[in-house]
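Q: Structure for this?
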Amino acid sequence: MSATPVQTAAPRWLGLWPAAMLTLFFLVPFGIMLAVSVAHRDVSGFYEWSFEWDSYARFLSAFFGKVMAVSISVSLTAAAICVALAFPFTVFLSNMGHRAQTRILVVLLSALALSEVIIGFSLSTLLSQTAGIGNLFHWLGLIDEPRAYTPSLFALITGLCYIGFPFAVLVLYPPVSRLDPEIVEAARVMGASGPRAFFGVIVPNLRGAIVGAFILVFVFTLGSYLLPQLLGRSEHWTLSVHITDQAVYQSNLPFGAAMSVFLMLVALALVGLASLAGRERGAA
Amino acid sequence: MTELRIDSLSKDFGTFRALDSVSLDIPNGKFVCLLGPSGCGKTTLLRLIAGLETPTDGRVYVGGADQTEVPTHKRGMGMVFQSLALFPHLDVADNIAYPLAIRGVDKATRRARAEELLELVQLPGLGSRRIHQLSGGQRQRVAIARGLSINPQVFLLDEPLSALDASLREHMQIELRQIQQRLGVTTVVVTHDQKEALTMADLVIVMKDGVIQQAGAPMELYHTPANAFVAGFIGTTNLMPCTVADGVVSVLGHAFPITEGDRIAITSGEAQLSVRPEHVLLGAPDEGLPAEVSFLRDLGESLHVLMRVGDQEITAHLAPGHGHDLVTGQTVGIRFRDGEKVVVQ
Ligand SMILES: Nc1ncnc2c1ncn2[C@@H]1O[C@H](COP(=O)(O)OP(=O)(O)OP(=O)(O)O)[C@@H](O)[C@H]1O
Ligand SMILES: [Mg+2]
């Protein structure tokens, strides 16, 4: 390294801009949330400033423990399925011609433009008894009676994967397309069959990207509160749904805030764990 | 026995013919250099041999066995890629032993073999390093060691030394050649550096536009080029349009008699005359083809004299101690050393 100070093109104060934005739109709301979470619930529908752990205490019940477990497992499952589908897909995509790649990426991006509401209702229609694939299966003679596939855990995970998949592909695409194709060819020449080269060379070299995509989909689906209500049964309601329920319908803002803080801490812990796992052996 | 045989191999990319009916017989244990300008199809030929591309036409045989339909991973060849393609997720020893791991060799044997190969490429004890902890030259050696770890029948290298600086490159050329001779493995190296080819090869194959121009021993190509392209590509030379008739080569209006040892492929009509700069002799203007000295370059070990005859440039390399009285603008008479004229199409 040279001893002379590095000259950057942008003046230093420009760095204050993102810092200011971060403070304004993240730290301040987070602070308010923290403050509310320890406030005292006013039964009339709002809260009074104070400092008490009541909301957190209530949260440490078996019921909410289970909700937390459901939330996390649903998101983990969705993230795992998304990445398991998106990774081979992206590798395949990056081997296609440039024009085909662009087209497919544009289609994926446009899927991102659909709102959760549209996706939720479309899926619930598609999986319904009266107008959905149940009818199709019945017509094909696969099942005896038309049946509904929603609400169910399957429907919920399908919906979450539908949302998460394009994100996973978009996170995976740049590193996958940057992977030196000669690395794979080298493995082939040295005797690795296709699957062997895939799991022995492509996957380990892209561990970071895979973990990144996993974290993104996990965090993203953890915050989803519409789909669990549309596609899942009440036992599949995630913490986000309960937060909304408490804050909006039960008028218990301190409890909603406490749950939010907890959700965030858990998410952070998991992200930290995952990135540690990603770094450990793939030390670059 | 012919170890590697290529039989009228062609490769089309769409409508573009990258390789046109290439045939080669490479005897067992030979060191072959594929030489040619960028885009002439060297990499394509190497990839076809390795099975990384499917030929449009033609066949590849190793030791008499047809390999054309055999998938890459079952050909058992060693290959060093231009980008080296070392695995960043494995350490040096695991990189080298990767082909052995694929074949189910146990860990202790793999480590031992990796260490043996590291010694061969003069990197003993570096087995536990990561790839990013190596210098460019060390990576090159690791890639070579990896290519050799299964004792391949055929060892392919695509411009393995192009990323190195000049001195390390020369060093590695000699080393690669020595390793190859010690192991006796049939080796095909792609290069576009003719000096590299001359340094290392038993057999040089000059290609242009997907067609083999000439295949032969380095000095055969140097002394008896098959055409003007090969003459110009191997070493430096003066290429001049000429006409041949009745034992005389006429260049730029001056007649030179054909002498003993001249290589005259065209005995009458239009052709190209190739004379190496060290065989261009200078004398008084009336003793040969009159030319004007346009530039003098003294390199100590030799004096380069650039001359013009009309539009034609001719260069002479003079031994030390000669030509010190020459000045730019002076007119000299050019002659060619007896037996060093090469007339080709
Ligand atoms: N996959 C491909 N698709 C289309 N054309 C190709 C492909 N691969 C190579 N070519 C073309 O085939 C020709 C030969 O390519 P090749 O890579 O064999 O050249 P080369 O002799 O190795 O050149 P260099 O010295 O620059 O590496 C080039 O004109 C190249 O553009
Ligand atoms: Mg090439």
